[in-house]
Design a protein that fits this description.
The protein is built from 6 helices and no strands. The protein has 180 residues and is mostly helical. It starts with a helix and ends in a 32-residue tail after the last helix.
C-alpha cells in the first residue's frame, strides 16, 4: 500500500486532473443522486470510495477529503493525524519522527502539490479538524451536497424575529395617581 501511496504523490498532476473531471461528472449527476436518495447511495459510494482511494492513497475515510489540497498525500496517514502541515519532528531526510521508515506525509504533500500545478496556495489552506461524526462516510457525496447545497448544506431559512410581547403597564405604586 505504501508504495502505491508514494506512486500517487509522484503522479499527483494526472490524478488531480482526473479527479477534477470526475468531480464535475459526479456533481452533474446530482439530479439522479437526489432522485435515488443520498441515504441509499451512501453505502455503495463508501465501498467504491474505500476501494479506490484506499488503494491509491491509503485513504483513512475521514469523510473530509483534502487530497486535492495536499498534493494527493492523505494527511490522515500522519501518525499524529496532523491536517495542517508537518510537526516539528520531521527528520532531516524527510522521514517521520514517529515512523522513521516512512516519509512524512507533509513532505510528500508539498512535493505532490508542486507537481500538481506548482501553485502551493491550496496546501496552505487551513483544514478544519476531523468531524468524527462523518468518519467513514463518502467524501464524494459530501462534495456534491456542498456544491448543490443539499441536506445539511442547504441554506437555512432566516429565523423570524422574536415576536414582541406586549408590555403590560406596571401597576402604580400605592399613593400615586390619587388626588389628595
Amino acid at each position: 500500500m505504501y508504495a502505491v501511496r508514494l506512486w500517487s504523490v509522484r503522479h499527483a498532476k494526472g490524478l488531480n486532473r482526473f479527479y477534477q473531471a470526475f468531480e464535475k461528472v459526479v456533481v452533474a449527476l446530482h439530479p439522479l443522486w437526489n432522485k435515488i436518495g443520498y441515504e441509499k447511495l451512501e453505502a455503495p459510494f463508501q465501498v467504491l470510495e474505500r476501494a479506490t482511494k484506499g488503494f491509491l492513497f491509503d485513504c483513512q475515510m475521514c469523510g473530509q477529503c483534502a487530497l486535492s489540497s495536499t498534493g494527493m498525500s492523505c494527511p490522515m496517514n500522519c501518525p499524529k493525524t496532523l491536517r495542517n502541515g508537518p510537526c516539528g519532528g520531521v527528520r532531516p531526510n524527510g522521514n517521520c519522527e514517529v515512523k522513521p521508515e516512512m516519509k512524512c506525509v507533509w513532505v510528500q504533500g508539498w512535493a505532490g502539490a508542486e507537481r500538481m500545478d506548482g501553485n502551493l496556495e491550496k496546501i496552505k489552506d487551513v483544514q478544519i479538524q476531523v468531524n468524527n461524526a462523518i468518519k467513514g462516510k463518502s467524501a464524494w457525496l459530501r462534495v456534491v451536497r456542498m456544491t448543490k447545497k443539499v441536506g445539511e448544506f442547504a441554506p437555512k431559512p432566516p429565523k423570524a424575529p422574536p415576536a414582541k410581547k406586549p408590555v403590560a403597564a406596571a401597576p402604580a405604586p400605592a399613593g400615586e395617581g390619587k388626588a389628595a
